[in-house]
Amino acid sequence: MSDLNDEAATDKPTAFDLVGGEARVRELVDRFYDLMDLEADFAGIRALHPDSLDGSRDKLFWFLCGWLGGPDHYISRFGHPRLRARHLPFAIASSERDQWLRCMAWAMEDIGLAEPLRERLLGSFFETADWMRNRNG
User: Fold this and answer.
1) Which residues form a coiled coil (predicted)?
2) If we measure between CA atoms, which residue out of 92, 100, 28, 98 comes closest to residue 64?
3) Which end of the chain lies in a sparser environment, N or C, as judged by fewer CB atoms within 10 Å?
């Protein structure tokens, strides 16, 4: 998994700063789940979620804040994310990985993140999403 926090030890802004802080991370997460709920292309990953996406929205927001180099809201609430272990109950193959990535890429574009930042984040998201696969295909 890529560590986007490497900048933290330097004077360079973190990915969290470049995204625009908590308000923009929340906007990204909300757009991501809105797209997942609305677009038939994402029906496969939508089916892996509960009827209400409220809890999923909060957890992804809390996680992304820390993952991007901002406040560790997720860890303060739940401890280490243990992403792979938490996702093992869900069938995740290449199709689900790719749906998740397309949905996130679309959300990043919709909220107006600059292309170089979108590309950088998508590369890191790919590494994490690919690591989450637990089924062939």
Assistant:
1) none
2) 28
3) C
Q: How many CB atoms lie within 10 A of CB 98?
A: 15
Q: How is residue 43 written in tokens?
A: 């029906």
Beta-carbon contacts of residue 106 (< 8 Å; ≥ 6 apart)? 35
> What is the C-alpha separation between 70 and 24, in angstroms, rounded?
12
CA 38, CA 107: separation in Å to the nearest integer?
A: 12
Exposure string over 100-113, b if 16+ CB within 10 A, otherwise e: bbbbbbbbbeebeb
**pLDDT > 80? residue 91:** yes
| Cβ neighbours for 36, distance < 8 A, ≥ 6 positions apart | 42, 45, 46, 49, 53, 103
* Alpha helices (runs of H) in the chain, residue ranges in sequence order: 15-19, 21-38, 43-46, 54-67, 73-78, 83-87, 94-110, 115-132
Q: Give the global pTM.
A: 0.90
